[in-house]
Amino acid sequence: MPSWRRKVRPLDLLLVLISLAYPFVVYFGLVHFSPLTVGLALVVFLILRLLLQRHRRARRSEFGIYLAVLAAITVLLMVNELLAIKTYPVLISLSFAVVFGYSLFNPPTIIERFARMMEGELDEQAIRYTRNVTVAWVVFFLLNAAISLWTALYGDLATWTLYNGFISYILIGLMFGGEFLLRQYVKRKKVS
């Protein structure tokens, strides 16, 4: 069965929901607990993600990314507990940028893989298009990481939560939607 059609397990779903709600969990967690307690909860969360990745026999690159994020958060917790908590979205965006960027040098690109799952075979023009979309996502994730880092370093907790828990998701949705509309335009133009 293709990996995208796997049965969703409740624990996997819970971890995804926690990941998506992370900024709000942090915001409310810091109201009731110390930054160290919230940071340690993040470490436990990341260890659980690592164990699930290993249990699923995920690609080494996916496992390596979770391990690198865990190591960075652990080191940052020793330096600045609040910054460690706030840099998680930065590290995730950078991880996506690295994965998408790596695929540019080791084709097929991430977007080409998705396109082949949906469309089957692709011609050269479609492969070029998917490569350009991959570049656009790399740039997007780098810009998102930069803004997330700015909110972590200079924004208050409310600003950080608003950007990382709401605005960044809106921007991701706009990026998906914009690319979808562009793709439809390119397909129509190719047919005519």
What report would you give on this structure?
This protein is mostly helical and 192 residues long. It folds into two domains: 1-80, no CATH class; 87-192, no CATH class. It has eight helices and no strands. The chain has helices at 10-32, 35-55, 60-79, 81-86, 88-105, 110-119, 124-154, 157-191. Helix 2 (35-55) packs antiparallel against helix 3 (60-79). It is globular, with a radius of gyration of 18 Å.
Concise summary:
By secondary structure, this protein is mostly helical. Helix content is 85%, strand content 0%. The chain folds into 2 domains: 1-80, no CATH class; 87-192, no CATH class.
Largest sheet composition: none
Q: Secondary-structure element order, as H and E?
A: HHHHHHHH
Structural class: mainly alpha
Radius of gyration: 18 Å
